[in-house]
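Notebook, p. 212. Picked up where the previous page left off. The plan for this session was modest: take the two constructs that came back from the sequencing core last week, fold each one, and keep the raw output in the notebook itself so nobody has to go hunting through shared drives later. Recording the first one now, exactly as returned: residue sequence, then the structure token string.
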Amino acid sequence: MSQNIAASNTRTSRKWYKHLYIQVIIAIILGVIVGHYFPGVGENFKPFGDTFIKLIRLLIAPIIFCTIVSGIASMKSLKSVGQVGWKSLVYFEVLTTVALVIGLLAVNLMAPGKGMHIDPASLDGGAVAGYTEAAEQQSISGFLTHIIPETVFGAFAEGNILQVLFISILFAFGLQLLGDSGKPLLATIDLIAKTFFKMLKIVMYVAPLGAFGAMAFTIAKYGVASLSAYGALLICYYITGFFFVFVVLNIVARMTGFSLWRFLRYIREELALVLGTSSSESALPRLMTKLETLGCDKPVVGLVVPSGYCFNLDGSCINMTVLVVFIAQALDIDLSWQHQLSLLVILLLTSKGAASVSGGAFITLAATLGSMNSVPAAGLVIVLGVYRFISEGGALINVIGNGVATLFISRWNGSLNMAQLQQELDRGVKKKSLVDNDMLAKADSKTEDIRVHRT
């Protein structure tokens, strides 16, 4: 019987080094070592990370389009779409507001920039000129007009998530209004989506290489020294991020009826990928697939996750509030509570467009400083060196936040399969138990062999 158990568990268990998150973590560690001890070599690995991100972004637009169109067109009525839509917007606005407030409170309490006494006149704005120029286009009217692309294919060519989202929803509504005559086209779109996910599976084989290249370049370019130089800022940000995830999102998870810790274990491969590449977009397609496996309806996943990547960037909201106030503290600029309240209102609007352009969070930060007129935009130079390390934390929080949001909205909408959710979240524990049972079975077999031999 022990041999049968061992044989069964051997087939079920999977070698540890074949897990993607293990491969990515090893790649990250190697990247840190190469970047630190061989910085000249480490900077040359930048194309590895950039190429992997380009491969992911190549697939994101068509995957979002196919998923949203399939999801909305599969719904029984436009009323169902509207219900998911308004619930998503309410949730996004509440959680991003909470993230902004928590970031504001934390940076005021810890005051990481106090005592730096940097003279604003000594700042060289040339290093952030590109960001400030792009920020000039980030006005409210510019943001609204930017949602609509010049052409249908222009959004896909640029990889603009917000524009792809707009086209996808519009196309889905049109397809649903076709009724039964549109079903063949819907089936074709579903098949195209499956093809793109197969392409994604192929791309994931080089994920460790991309993570290695991105991390080697980051450490070689900015160095571990930049971490210690801005230690107080990093501590402030990551304490705030941990609080938001393990307190705020944990409360949301419990309200939904699942364990946040088990959910984090379930998406550990996606989190490792985001950590290595500093991009939440790298995990978007795989996150959508896993949420469907957890029991969320495909239409809800297809609508909530892509829109969450535009309107529910909790990590980006935290880093923007922390960085704006940190820059003011470093420049000895006293921001009154009226200024900080106006900052909160501005960020509630500008943060919604952070995903619409490349380097969106930093550009949005520049736009926010430009709107305040109390903190010079050239102050971005102060955080330019350490921003990469902060953006990694923001990307992780964005992925976790959108995963929790989808599960919560699915439960709120009455379309979450709770039995399937718990079963899938338990799989990680069961896999570990299977490995343990396998080891016990082998130990029992060896003991039996020894006993027989002695006899």
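Okay, moving on. Second construct, recorded in the same format:
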Amino acid sequence: MNPHLHFWLPIAGMAAGYGLLMALNPVRKPLRDGARCLRRFPALWITLAVLGVCYAGFQHVGVRLLENFFLPKEETAFAWAQPWALPYAFRVEAARQAALPAVESVAGLFNNLIATFPFSVAAAVLLLVNWRGGHGVLNQALRRRYGGWGWALYGVLTASALATLLKPFVLYAGLPALARWMPEHLLFPASFAIDRLSFVFEYLLGVGIQVYLILLADTWVRGVGFDPEELFRFAIRRSAAVMKWAVVVLALSGLLIDLPLFAATLPPFWPAAFPTVTAYVSAVARPALAGFLIAFSTLQITLVFHSESLRHALRDHARFLRRNAVPMAWFLVIALVHFYGFHWASQALRLGLGETTGAGLAWQLAAPLPEALLAAWLLASWVCLFQKLRAEGERAEEGIAF
């Protein structure tokens, strides 16, 4: 076969299949509405883009430069350039590596799409100083909704905010210095505990931002005006309603991921058990958690719009899936196809350019921009689809009752 045909035929086949998928699927109208919503409110994707670039700049570029500074010169692997290379083995590896991030991104549509660190450090400061009254609104909403348990949730949130303030100093700037005089059997468990406690605040902050974006998309669906300040406060109150589901997700994440990783840092198991535990987390725990979130996909958005008990939200979720299993399945397939395509291309570019080259680091900084656009479109489409299917179900119930 002509080598050019061997290269272009699969691409043409995938393009044709993608065109048919987008043209013939039964949820194409909510997908179009999601794109229109994005044009009306670009803050949906700009918010995700800013947070994504901040995270990538710190995690991928900042940490690598820090390692390059502290490691001996002969151990650093940083290089500004290398020849472009993407052999078949790299393409296969990119396809393998893209699977888990794609599934987790789909799950994030129904839970939390947003990596908030290091923005979470500034958010922790703003929360603790009661910027725009957010601290007081959140405290009041938690106490009103959960009573005495609201104080417990408030205490956990405050403690995790304080841990977030410590995280960049202890885990990044201070860790090389601490390692010189603090033994490993104390250093690793303590640093892991700070990291996991700060993750609670980062996760809840991401959920709160996602609640705000869901409400912003809903204003377009309903065609109503809003005051940004009031929508911000309303999102905080709704975040308190979503807190009960967020606590369930955090508890499951702690049981499946955090507890095994923390145990692996303790003296009887460190360091021999750590590679085994990290392999278990990637192969079992993270896919299981993503599958759980997809299985309960409407819990978060139901609590955002209805602010009901978790038991009633589970009942409404089961009823929603019974009525709308086909459109939900189509939406999941379309979301997975788009996220997998993006993550495959992103991983291929990282491998081809080199993760520690200047071009590779530049792509890692730029990648959050198209990812934010894709995620915001699918999130807005999810809001449009949910409201459309819910309205159709309510009309059907009224017709039966009549």
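Notes on construct two before I forget. Residues 3-390 form one domain.
Flagging for discussion at group meeting.
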